[in-house]
Design goal:
This protein is of the alpha/beta class. 44% of the residues lie in helices and 19% in strands.
C-alpha cells in the first residue's frame, strides 16, 4: 500500500510511504504532485488542512490559497479520494509543537534513510518535506 502526505505551500512537501519499497520525500511543486498522482495509482492521500493565520499578508495568502485549491483540484480531477487533516491533529500524534525543527528530528528518527535536503547543494533539512512524510505516516496509521 502507498500513503502520500501533502504539506501544501511554497515551502511544503510531498511524503510517500510505500509499504513494500520504503519512504521518500520531495519538495512540493505542481510537477511533483502530478508525478505522485500518475505513479501511485490506488494510493491513499492525506492533505494538511490549512487556513489563514493572523499576520499573514494578503498577497501571500492569496497565492497560498491558489496552491491549496490546485492540490485539491488535481486530486479531484484524478478522482483520488483523500482526507484532510488539521495540523494540530497529526502533530499531536507525534507529540509535536509548531517548532519545525522538532518535526525534522522526529522524521529523521522514524525514517533515518530518507534524505530531507531540498537539493543536493542544500546543507539544511527541509521542514516541509519532513512534515509531509510525517503526514504520510499519520495516514498509514489511520487509513488502514
Amino acid at each position: 500500500m502507498v500513503y502520500i502526505g501533502i504539506d501544501p505551500g511554497q515551502n511544503g512537501g510531498i511524503g510517500i510511504i510505500d509499504t513494500d519499497e520504503g519512504a521518500k520525500a520531495v519538495p512540493y511543486s505542481d510537477g511533483n504532485l502530478y508525478m505522485a498522482l500518475t505513479a501511485h495509482h490506488g494510493a491513499k492521500f492525506m492533505v494538511e488542512k490549512v487556513s489563514a493565520r493572523p499576520g499573514q499578508g494578503v498577497v501571500s495568502m492569496f497565492h497560498f490559497g491558489q496552491s491549496y485549491g490546485y492540490i485539491l483540484g488535481m486530486l479531484d480531477a484524478f478522482m483520488v479520494s483523500y482526507q484532510l487533516v488539521l495540523p494540530k491533529t497529526w502533530k499531536k500524534a507525534f507529540e509535536l509543537s509548531s517548532d519545525k525543527t522538532q518535526s525534522i528530528k522526529v522524521c529523521k528518527r522514524l525514517f533515518p534513510l530518507v534524505d530531507l535536503k531540498r537539493t543536493e547543494r542544500c546543507k539544511t533539512d527541509h521542514d516541509g518535506m519532513a512534515e509531509a512524510l510525517l503526514i504520510a505516516e499519520y495516514a498509514r496509521r489511520k487509513m488502514k
